[in-house]
């Protein structure tokens, strides 16, 4: 049964407030900007056109609504946990309290895959978009430095991916207070650019372009929703910040729910205006929003949109890297990874070694590994985490009804069950290759846990596996 030893609520609160805890510097606005920064990026500037052209047509509006609802159901579950357990680690920490150590490790290992691949994929995407932008000014990188390792194409390293990962790692090293301010500025500019597109584009909407509304039928809407889901997955990174929030019981639900609500509205609005401006079949391009503006001869707005896209992808990468650093910190603090990784700086309480590890992982993957075929693994890892968190809400309501909850998921167990069904439905529509890759990663994780984590677990050092607030060493 030691494989399923659980953290007590007192012990987790002790961790979040002790000497090895992170700096309390964030408020509800910072959390909302983190959520919007994570969700509004490649999805709104790139994915909208691809999903409309290849899957859903103008009914992409419904695809984004369906994906948004699936995420909203899960967001309510995350909000309950984030306000109840204000500690780093997100779904990893929640499952530690609900199902025990082995399950927590499996989920933590799963999230390492999610964040690691997300960082690498987004960094590669940022590099491609940046290179397209500077080509307009006659600047061309050498082919050898323009992409991941691919001798057939003459590319060996993605230099710009390395540069942006290094820059954002340096920002994270300044501390959560300073880095969140930089993120807030970039997100506000990004939202301003999207509102500019909507304000200009709405005057060029032709209702005839919305006909036929469902050219690929209902199956196209579902296929689009499964693809569009990738655009929303970043919101769970907000819960990684719980330990650094000044008033987590109040602010965490506000940050999670408000950021997702803003993102759903923006995705639906952009999709409606975009497919109204240009026939959906013509939107299968890498920059559909800027493309639509160029078609209607609004080149000056298209230039701002290109800037917004760069900032949008930058903030997504920033929040993904932030989530990865806090995940490494939480798992290391529990002893399931080497304890040195969770060491904090004295002044800013920044997990420097976790940031360096994230930097190395993202740099290597994005610089030299072509990850297009592995991008779906990001989706499956996120969906798995969403399902576990949703089930955890039901379990803890039954097993620990005494725990104070400043925010409660409404209509339990209906909302969590609907979240499990929605995420499970999207999960089974992923490819066989994705499931095989997920299984291989799972097996590797078990090998690491039984080879290292089980013997070095901090929880395993205490006599009482319920870990009271003031534990006594063996």
Question: How would you describe what is shown here?
Answer:
The protein is mostly helical. The chain has a single domain (2-21, 33-461), classed as Amino acid/polyamine transporter I (Up-down Bundle). 66% of the residues lie in helices and 0% in strands. It has helices at residues 9-17, 28-39, 42-56, 60-84, 91-98, 101-135, 159-173, 176-201, 217-228, 248-277, 288-295, 299-333, 352-368, 375-399, 414-428, 432-456.
What's this, in brief?
66% of the residues lie in helices and 0% in strands. The chain has 474 residues and is mainly alpha-helical. The radius of gyration is 22 Å and the shape is globular.
Largest sheet: none
The CATH architecture is Up-down Bundle
Overall body shape:
globular
User: Residue ranges: pLDDT <50 for 5 or more in a row?
Assistant: 463-474
Strands, count: 0
Percent of sequence in beta strands:
under 5%
Secondary-structure element sequence?
HHHHHHHHHHHHHHHH
Name the structural class.
mainly alpha
Mean pLDDT: 87
CATH class: Mainly Alpha
CATH fold-level label:
Amino acid/polyamine transporter I
| Rg measurement, Å | 22 Å
Distance between the termini: 18 Å
CATH homologous superfamily classification = Amino acid/polyamine transporter I
Quaternary = single chain
Count of separate structural domains: 1
Main location: membrane
Pfam families: AA_permease_2
Keywords: Membrane, Transmembrane, Transmembrane helix, Transport
Membrane topology: Multi-pass membrane protein
